[in-house]
Specification:
There is one protein chain. The chain is an alpha+beta fold. The chain has 2 domains: about 170 residues, PAS domain (Beta-Lactamase); about 120 residues, Beta-Lactamase. It is about 50% helix and about 20% strand. The chain has a 5-stranded antiparallel beta sheet with strand order 2-1-5-4-3, with helices on both faces. Helix 1 runs antiparallel to helix 2. It is rod-shaped, with a radius of gyration of 60 Å.
């Protein structure tokens, strides 16, 4: 009953601490006197029937004090502190700390009976009850610590009492209380050790599981390393093969360039869109080509040929796959035989055209000279034939 009454006192104290200051602030004329009267009258009215108690948080800091607690608590010397364990008197600190933490941890009422207080006066025993506040969500994390004095046991009468030395009954009772307290502390210690052992066991299982996962990860990494090494070896082999092929291609390209240059034949390679792919040095004497013209359309490049049909002929060769030859005039009275052929790859695929320019200027000049000589010969023979016919008739 007294414990419930103290819980009520603590609840009212917490409510007053949060509501009455606000009312006093809103109404300075009346709120201050009402707050002061109510906050003083309620604990005074209830503390007549309630034992000494304190309201603390889960760390033992005092929030509210009910009744006279001077016999059990005193301010420590040095820096000011309102912590329950710092203010507890000798003989009460250790037992109170263990009981308080057990009650907070288990969220249940914990009782400490027959604790002996060491003081200047006669020995005093008391009971301590630690009650966690679970009535409302706003009171979670708080606890009520109640102190109750234990009356001294009655002295035995009779002959046995006469033969007992003075204070033997009190000493036996004190020893019994201390034994009970020691057993309680041993039980609490044993429970804490069991809890710690279970936590250590759980932690050990987690560490074992983590170790197994790490071992599995290590095996996977080892496997991946072996696979990477094997892949690296394969890549090195492929790299050597590619380097060998690159060397062969470079040698073949050099051979082809030297072959084309040695023939002194102007050759032009176009792709299937009639863009410049490659050309020989002799081609630059006919078409104004430079190395950077690779990839440009042939129609965009100036030429000395009088050959506007070159792109049409190339497209016709791509369409029919039949070569074409034309005698094309050029500047400076030059003539070239232009031969356009389809460009075939090794897998027999058409991939552009090849245009070969052959200088036939000398042949054209000899042909012109021959035609002129034939014309003169025909003219001479025509002039000589009428004279011979006249002579024969005469």
């Amino acid at each position: 009953m007294k414990t419930r009454l103290l819980i009520l006192v603590a609840t009212l104290a917490l409510g007053l601490a949060t509501t009455l200051p606000a009312r006093a602030h809103n109404d300075p004329s009346t709120g201050l006197s009402a707050a002061s009267g109510l906050s003083l009258s309620v604990p005074v009215a209830i503390s007549v029937a309630a034992p000494a108690a304190v309201l603390v948080n889960d760390e033992g800091d005092l929030l509210y004090i009910s009744g006279k607690t001077g016999k059990y608590l005193e301010p420590p010397s040095g820096r000011a502190s309102l912590n329950l364990f710092s203010m507890a008197r000798d003989g009460l600190k250790q037992a109170l700390s263990e009981t308080f933490h057990r009650a907070v941890r288990e969220q249940t009422v914990a009782t400490l009976k027959g604790v002996r207080l060491d003081g200047e006066g006669p020995a005093q025993r008391l009971d301590v009850v630690v009650q966690p506040m679970l009535q409302a969500a706003t009171q979670r994390g708080l606890a009520l610590v109640v102190f109750s004095d234990v009356p001294a046991p009655p002295r035995r009468r009779g002959r046995a009492a006469e033969h007992e030395p003075p204070g033997s009954a009190e000493r036996l009772e004190a020893l019994a209380k201390e034994l009970l307290q020691a057993r309680e502390e041993a039980r609490s210690t044993r429970e804490e050790m069991q809890t710690s052992q279970e936590e250590l066991k759980s932690t050990n299982e987690e560490l074992q599981s983590t170790n197994e996962e790490l071992q599995s990860t290590n095996e996977e990494l080892t496997t991946s390393k072996e696979e990477m090494q094997s892949m690296n070896e394969e890549l090195q082999t492929v790299n050597h093969e590619l380097q060998a092929k690159l060397t062969e291609l470079s040698r073949a390209s050099n051979d082809m360039k030297n072959l084309l240059d040695s023939t002194e034949i102007a050759t032009l390679f176009l792709d299937d869109t009639l863009r410049v792919r490659r050309f020989t040095t002799q081609t630059t004497r006919i078409i104004k080509l430079i190395p950077s013209d690779a990839g440009r359309p042939i129609t965009d490049i100036a030429t000395e040929l009088n050959y506007p049909e070159m792109s049409q002929d190339a497209q016709e060769v791509l369409r029919t796959l039949v070569f074409l030859e034309r005698d094309v005039p050029a500047t400076q009275d030059r003539w070239f035989k232009v031969r356009t052929m389809p460009y075939r790859t090794q897998d027999n695929r058409i991939d552009g055209v090849v245009i070969i320019f052959t200088d036939v200027t000398a042949g054209k000049r000899m042909e012109a000279q021959l035609r002129a000589a034939q014309a003169r010969l025909a003219e001479l023979s025509g002039n000589a034939q009428p004279q011979g016919a006249g002579d024969g008739l005469s």
